[in-house]
Amino acid sequence: MENITIGENFSPAWEYYWRKPSFRIQFIITACVLFSFMFLFSYFFDFIESRQGKLLHDPLLDLLPAANVSIPIFSILYFAVISWLIISVKNPKVLLIGMQTYCIVTLLRMITIPLFPLEPPMDYIPLREPFVQLFTHQGRIISHDLFFSGHMTSILFCYYTSPKGVFKKIYLAFAVIIGILLMIQRVHYTIDILAAPLFTWLCFLFSKKVLLAKI
User: What's residue 4's pLDDT?
Assistant: First the structure.
């Protein structure tokens, strides 16, 4: 993966990659998939919220205090994603790998969540999503999108796709912090948090080694 030089003029890089049909086609398809989520999410969320799931006993949650930590969760999450976009737009291939990783892992979650329906943990504190609620009917709060954590994958795709450097270390630290905060908020079980790094990494490898191998 190419290193990113801050301040470097990235227009030649875009011109270089955009001339490649393989890159151009994959970028357009990936952008269309991202756009389609805006329409799919409302139906998907209605479906999972209508189902009754299983309540798990989570010993680790019992050790953590329950508190509303929505503000630090979204402050960290949005800072990570926005900073990743600012940095990655200078490198088309890095940007595409990140977009594809997010798309694939989101599609995977749309499979695993219905297959493993879960009820929110005990002492669940509703997490109001400033962005996701825009795609729900009447801004309803989503509580059944548990296995595996989408908040974790949003941080982890930033981590996996970033070149080595200070931001990669920051994203890793953010992932650990977000994982703990999500459990304090009681919106995820421990297994939802621990499964996210594995699934996100597999989706990242699939994008890097298979989809973008010849670009």
Answer: 40
Domain assignment of residue 174, yes or no: yes
Whether 186 is in a domain gets the answer yes
Residue 6 resides in a domain: no
Name the domain count of the chain: 1
Cα separation, 17 vs 20, in Å, equals 5
Non-local CB neighbours of 122 within 8 Å, separated by 6+ positions: 55, 61, 186
- Which pLDDT score is estimated for 99? 97
The alpha-helical segments, DSSP class H, found in 116-207 are 150-161, 166-184, 190-206
Report DSSP state, residue 52: -
In a domain, 3, yes or no: no
CA distances from 126 to 143, 161, 210 (A): 7, 30, 38
Phi, psi of 54 (to 5 degrees): -100, 140
Of 104-108, 137-141, 151-155, 195-199, the one with minimum mean pLDDT is 137-141
End-to-end CA distance of the chain: 11
Q: Which domain holds residue 186?
A: 11-211
Q: Among 6-10, 26-30, 59-63, 206-210, which is the least confidently predicted range?
A: 6-10
